[in-house]
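the two lines:
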Amino acid sequence: MSEATQLQPEVQQLLSDKEYKFGFKTEIDSDTLPKGLNERVVREISRRKEEPDSVLDFRLEAYRRWLEMKEPTWAHVDYPPIDFQDFSYYSAPKNKKKYKSLDDVPKEILETFTKLGIPLDEQKRISNVAVDAVFDSVSVATTHKKKLAEAGIIFCSISEAMVEYPELIEKYLGSVVPAGDNFYSALNSAVFTDGSFVYIPPNTKCPMELSTYFRMNEKETGQFERTLIVAAENSYVSYIEGCTAPQFDTRQLHAAVVELVALDNAEIKYSTVQNWYPGDKETGAGGIYNFVTKRGICKGKNSKISWTQIETGSAITWKYPSCILRGDNSVGEFYSVALTTGHQQADTGTKMLHLGKNTRSVIISKGIAADTSSNAYRGRVLMSPVAAGSRNFTQCDSLLVGSKSSAHTFPYIEGGNSSSRVEHEASTSKISEEQLMYLMQRGISKEAAVSTIVNGFCKDIFDRLPMEFTVEAEKLLSLKLEGVVG
Amino acid sequence: MLVIDNLVAGFEGMDILKGISLTVNKGEIHSIMGPNGAGKSTFSKTLVGHPEYPASSGSVTLDGKNLLEMEPDQRAREGLFMAYQNPVEIPGVNNVEFLRMAYNAKRAHLGLEEADPMDFQDIIQEKMGLLSMSGVFMERDVNEGYSGGEKKKNEILQMAVLEPKVAILDEIDSGLDIDALKVVAENIMKLKNENTALIVITHYQRLLDYIKPDHIHILSQGRIVKSGGPELALELESTGYNGFNTEAA
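prediction for all of em together
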């Protein structure tokens, strides 16, 4: 392992065991709102977070919209109806209201993050990655703040940003994913609790990777984080998101919203390694329902947004990181690996909305389905009549492991103009007996052979990850594939 | 020592091998020759444990260990190797990394320390030197986009790295022009030593100009119809397989 990979953050230590290793729960007194959702709950969340009125108004508006909306049913996933009154919408470790410094953070929480491989204290923390650690509904610590501040970069919890940078929040919060965008984003807008805020000032290249690590601890709690990243003119940032949760036999709900804004010549690279608890491998009991709205806007000319996701967890994944290519010559990219095993169901993909001239988008999706899981790619490419000279290239490859899994592809191509071009390639294959046999004939075990073939299948995507994560992503896949029959 | 005793095996429930017995001692070269459909590929696939070509009776032991009870990867780690007629492509998997995995699987089996990428570079360089390989293709993915000759050379390189007790060369001459054939055959001979026995499966006598077998066995309709020394190949050259078929009947 090279030096660079030893410096890496979140996943490394999490990967060495067969079982879902992050399934432990931290025993800590928490201040959890009673189950249920109504306007009082929304007001209470806002009050506890001491938000400005403008944010409360945003929440209430979203809540009212949500009441009128219906849960979407078009995704290729199957689950019993969710009783949204059966969750608690706010849970915070009982202690002080705000952590002014690491000294205020309960030691159980610090230990939790250390156990997850993300030490937060000054001596041990990871040197080339700044981490914002979110525990249930609260951001507990953000590392490397000072160094970032010297470059004029803001990296803090969104709660803090609402108080400290109200103008930026007012300008950009909800500007990419409006409150009423969809059922889950409306729910998130009403009850979001914490998340990260990033602002990169003009002409600035962020000197380190920024990362948020989400840990969902409390049982029957929803986690609704909200992330907002704004890259001003001529700036660059690479951001990584990691997630785990304890193992419960009841379902947990996760409905996040991520908004990215790239101004002229700015570039945002957003990478996700998602490993929420997927539920019991044999029975499918428990696991996270992951309903996420991620969207970026290439607002300025020559701007670029690139989504890379490694999706391995959750019982249900409903997620379509998208790009609105408004600026002329802007570029949107979506690189995805989605692995489902056991009883997992994933419906994931992207939307590329070409509004500006000479805009480009690339979609490369690799779906791997093993055991009795179901894995769907769903993508929409829209070429507006004015997006002259624009291009999209889409490649969706599915790999089936075993004979009980299924893969599906739902591409939607819309609009167009005489000078734009859309290309779509799709393939579905099975791990071939001959490939397995060839590797095994060289003495490689069947499990290692399956994971080698799958990792090879995903290589194009892994190569796009920040270097520190490539090795971890491969290990994560191998770990998930253990016990899977080829 | 590989001992095959009265091996019956087939494909989709149909017996193709109808009782093969063969003993291959340490360091010997045996050649299995036969026409299309004689059961040559079934023979090699059954030996390495291909799940679609199971043995229904008989036994196969390598140094006393029952190979038929082992999974294909265990058989390989015990020292059984097959150079494929048509090596498969494995996209996205770097060839050197693949070789290192295979090498380390064997090392682990022997209770030896695994080689890290740096150590392995030295090992692979040495083996490539031995085989006079330049190997630009080495850096590509396993067999992907290799020419026919490169694929075969890569098989022999794997053999060099794994140092098997018994190597089955399954129609290693197919698809090679005469120059490439010569290089591949000479490389095989460089690897052959008193610890490595070879089972050379081929249609044609021409390969045996370079790899001189100690024993030749003629396979026809699932049986070894005749065994003999090198002279048998020449006999075959003049009479063809037909003569042997009638003998079998």
